[in-house]
Design a protein that fits this description.
By secondary structure, this protein is mostly beta strands. It has 4 helices and 12 strands.
Amino acid sequence: MFSGIVFGTGRVVALERRGGGLVLTVAPPAGFGSPAAGESVAVAGVCLTALAAGRRLSADISRETLRRTRLGSLAKGDLVNLERSLRWGDRLSGHFVMGHVDGIAKILAVTRAGNSWTYRFSLPRALSRLVVVKGSVAVDGVSLTVSARRATSFDVAVIPETRRRTTLGRARAGDAVHLEADVFARYGRTGWRRRVKPTRG
């Protein structure tokens, strides 16, 4: 389990196809540490298992994960958000993030709004009941708050620190991202979800 507070970005240094899967190797940023073999790490919001401790992070990616995520489209040199799993007693500054991607969305627009930026994302139909105004959502593993909601899209506000620390600072309209709905929205009462109505626009 994670919090969506990304430590920083790592750079993809190798991708090795094995059978129907893939072994991904990433060079983490300074201070990230060396996850032990078997430790869960969020890579672009996807929960992966570290293969061995060391300066570089390597993880197996199964055929099923490749089917459900965009990790298979990564290339050497790409940056990915990294977060180590929560420890008992850690502060929870974001929200509970499982690292189980619910869908892939596209960035529709990025606009400056005062001292922050507004990002607009497409909203997959399967997630339409789980993304609500003032609710949480993880975008490529980044914990964000929904500021506006429409039938087929939603907005979030991104502050300078988040842009600097994550891949959102380099993201552009048209880029694909992983989406994970808030676990509380997923398992919330059906009646509560039915009362949520998207704004028009």
